[in-house]
Design a protein that fits this description.
230 residues, alpha/beta, Rossmann fold, 4-stranded parallel β-sheet, 11 helices, 7% strand
């Protein structure tokens, strides 16, 4: 258990560091299957946020209405955002209140250090903050309930013509079904699927109690409130 925790935290920390530094970011290893997730000049949009901030939901919804658009997403790296701005590519930054986002990350992997999970949240949004005026920021509620409003703001800001309709219960079911299929294809346990589940809810209660007492959470909350204020 100790060895597994050490390996997991080292791997997570390495990826986190590489996602913040230009030269290391270019060296991030990608399989051919996932190479398209990384930002590049030929992308049409960038969708990025800290893990468990509705990245999967919004990306699926966006692709549903814009099947030919090339989207960079799911790298969870600040440099995805800054490089998108450099390339002149529309960018959406997703954010969620830290206690829920971080708790969800810890639910996915209980071997991950609580302190490092919180610090990762802080570091991600601190790196993004200097360019917040150049992107569209979407909070979790808007992202999951009103994604068409997010896309409308993207179109207004960048002069694009991306499509998105209000999410109906039927469309949401379609997106959830796609996420479940991805889970099955990758043979992941239930608590890894990017939708609410009973299994995740049970684990999350214990995580929330531990997380709520952590001194770093105050800093994470302050950063979150700063983004909400804009």
């Amino acid at each position: 258990m100790i060895a597994r925790r050490l390996i997991k935290n080292t791997k997570y920390r390495t990826g986190h560091i590489m996602g913040r530094h230009e030269i290391l970011f270019q060296m991030l290893p990608f399989s051919e299957k996932n190479r398209w997730k990384k930002i590049s000049p030929d992308k049409d949009i960038c969708i990025e946020g800290f893990p468990r901030s509705a990245n999967s939901f919004f990306s699926k919804a966006f692709r549903l209405y814009n099947p030919t658009a090339k989207a960079a997403h799911h790298m969870h790296a600040p440099l995805q955002v800054t490089k998108a701005i450099e390339y002149g590519i529309p960018c959406v930054v997703l954010i969620r209140n830290p206690i829920d986002a971080i708790a969800s990350v810890l639910v996915v992997d209980r071997t991950l250090s609580t302190r490092f999970a919180i610090q990762s949240y802080i570091n991600f949004y601190e790196r993004v903050w200097p360019v917040h005026a150049d992107v569209v920021v979407s909070d979790f509620k808007e992202t999951t309930q009103y994604p068409h409003q997010v896309v409308a703001r993207v179109n207004q800001r960048y002069g694009t013509s991306f499509q998105m309709e209000p999410i109906t219960p039927e469309v949401k079911d379609t997106i959830f079904s796609q996420l479940k299929e991805t889970q099955k294809t990758l043979k992941q346990p239930e608590h890894l699927v990017a939708i609410p589940t009973a299994a995740k809810a049970r684990i999350k209660q214990d995580v929330l109690q531990e997380l709520d007492k952590h001194p770093l959470l105050t800093t994470a909350n302050l950063i979150y409130q700063r983004f909400l204020a804009i």
